[in-house]
Every structure is written in structure tokens, then in C-alpha cells.
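Please check this protein record:
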Amino acid sequence: MVSGATAEVTGVAGGGVVHRALAAEVSRVRDRSPGRPPRVLDVGGGSGAWAVPLARLGCAVTVVDNSPNALAALARRAREAGVHELVTPVQGDVDALGEVAPERGADLALGHGLLEVVDDAGAAVAALGAATAPGGAVSVLVASRYATVLARTLAGRLAEARAVLTDPDGRFGPDDALRRRIDAAALRGLLGAAGLPVELLQGDGVLDGWVPGAVRDGGPAAARAVAELEGWPRARRRSSTSPPGCTRSPAGPADPLIRLLAGRSHDDHPSAAEFTLLVQPGVRESAPRVLTRSGDRL
């Protein structure tokens, strides 16, 4: 496993939809278990792009990474942010996660930029699920195959775009740094095989990746304008294609960013239902869930 998130999965640690989703999960943990800090396990968390913001929210974060240099950078970043007492660096790998992280010990487990680079993506998902407490959540960021096709095409790298589209693992060739790119169907399959049925699958980043840097740097107003444009087609999909009462929309095939929410019951029997709606409170309380999102930035 390489250290940290892949280059194609950027997310916005400290802002944006992923941060808001994670903050909402942290709030749910506090409501469910008041009196203690939410426990977060960040696998492949590198230098703390996600761990430090979560520690600022009051979480106790354990970062498992196989790079001592990344973990040293994490320790420095945590000290500078004043949250070093809440961040625990652990050198290790997802293949031996059970040796460094207690089973069912995390309220929230992160696997950001992880599934694209491990030898066995299915085993990695299973390890994340095993490390998550009943009622907790697993957050996954993955690089999208179809977003890469779009990015390579717009860059004029048509042979690479075709290779990503046709290769079984979504790779453009032997020089590709990723072992695989994962589309929505494959992501559902991986999570379902690990006993984590889908509650939410949502695309994001449809426009943001193509906005010129000068526009993105234009301040909060520009960021809000892009966010509003991003949300508009998704709101239309909800109104035109979602079942009655659905508050979260399915991802489109070319959405660069995908979030997924899934769960497993307390007794470890996979739920028979696949949720594209918000789960009912009783179900939410009884299941570790999975938030996933995928990104592609070239």
C-alpha cells in the first residue's frame, strides 16, 4: 500500500462535501455515545490531510500508514495544529490491519485513496469493515474510471482514454501508478461482498475539476457558485428519477466523485436491503455504514 491518498483522489479535507459528510458522522457518534471522543481509524492516511481536520473536530484519530516519513509529517502537522494528543500514528498496512487496530474499535474508518493501490481491494474493504464498530461508518474515496476517461480525452490523450475504458482494471498502461480504477457498480460489489449493503451512492465533483484555478482562487463566492452548479443537476435527478421520499441521488456514470453509504447489522448478518434513501433511525443505529466518494484530478 502506498502512503496517503492517490494523486487522483483529492477531496477537500477541511471543506467541501466529504468534510461535511464526515462531520455529520462525527455528530452522529457524539449523539450516540456522548462523553467520549469519536474514534477514527484512518488507513493509509499519510501526513494527516484528513486526520488533522477530524482531530480538530474533537476525534481521537489513529492513522495507520506504512511510511515512517509520512507518519513523521503527520506528527509535525498535528503538533502545529495543537491536536497532537488526539492523533496516534501507527506504522502498518491494511493487509495486517488486525494486528495494529482493534476489531470493531472505530466509530469511523477511512480508506481514502486505498482501494486503487492495494493488492486485494476486497480484502481491504473487509478489513475496514471488521475494524468498524456496529453503528459506525466507513468512508472510502476511490478514483473513478469514467472521470479518468473524460480527463484524458480533454487532454488529448486519446489512446490512454481508450485504454482506461477498455482495460479490466481501468488502467492506461504499465506506467499507471494505480492498480485499478473503480466504477459505481464495482464499488457496490466490493462493499456488498464485505457485508456492507449500500445506503447511499452519490456523485460529486462533476464541474469542480474543470474550473480554472484562477476562478477557484476567486474566494468564497466563486466556490459557492461552483457548488450551486454542482448541486443543480443532482437536485433535478432527485426530482425526476428518485423514489418518493428519496433525499440522496444516485451517481451518474461520469461523476468524478462518488460517495457511498452502506451498513452491516449488529449480528453481522448482511442487510437484505440496498438503500438509496436515508436509512430509518432504527437501521442507522444498528449498522456500521460506508461513506465512499471517488475522485479524479489530472
Residues 5-14, 233-259, 261-287, 294-298 have pLDDT under 50 and may be disordered. Residues 16-144+182-209+245-294 form a domain with the Rossmann fold fold (CATH 3.40.50.150). The radius of gyration is 18 Å.
